[in-house]
């Protein structure tokens, strides 16, 4: 698996176009996203994460998303916890 793509602290509309460009340039294969530093997830950011997961899995590859507590909570609040697979992890030095 390649190095994880590190997601920005705010994954909102302003950050979505940059993330979209990065994801579009990512070659086919397994995809790992590091969201351990994400503090806020907006609807457009969620849409991009879901689309990336669907694309990668449709191609038969693994998709992993490491999530901060805030990211996991935002995913749950938007009703997508059953749709988006995110493993809750913590940043070193952060209390669980």
TrEMBL record:
Residue intervals of the MlaB-like STAS domain: 7-68
A matching Pfam family: STAS_2
InterPro entries: MlaB-like_STAS, STAS_dom_sf
The protein's name in its UniProt record: STAS domain-containing protein
Species of the source: Roseivivax halotolerans
């Amino acid at each position: 698996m390649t190095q994880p793509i590190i997601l920005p602290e705010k994954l909102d509309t302003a950050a979505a176009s940059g993330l979209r460009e990065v994801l579009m340039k990512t070659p086919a294969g397994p995809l790992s996203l590091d969201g351990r530093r994400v503090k806020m997830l907006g609807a457009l950011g969620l849409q991009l994460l879901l689309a990336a997961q669907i694309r990668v899995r449709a191609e038969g590859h693994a998709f992993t998303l490491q999530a901060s507590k805030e990211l996991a909570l935002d995913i749950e609040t938007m009703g997508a916890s059953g749709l988006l697979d995110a493993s809750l992890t913590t940043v070193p030095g952060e209390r669980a």
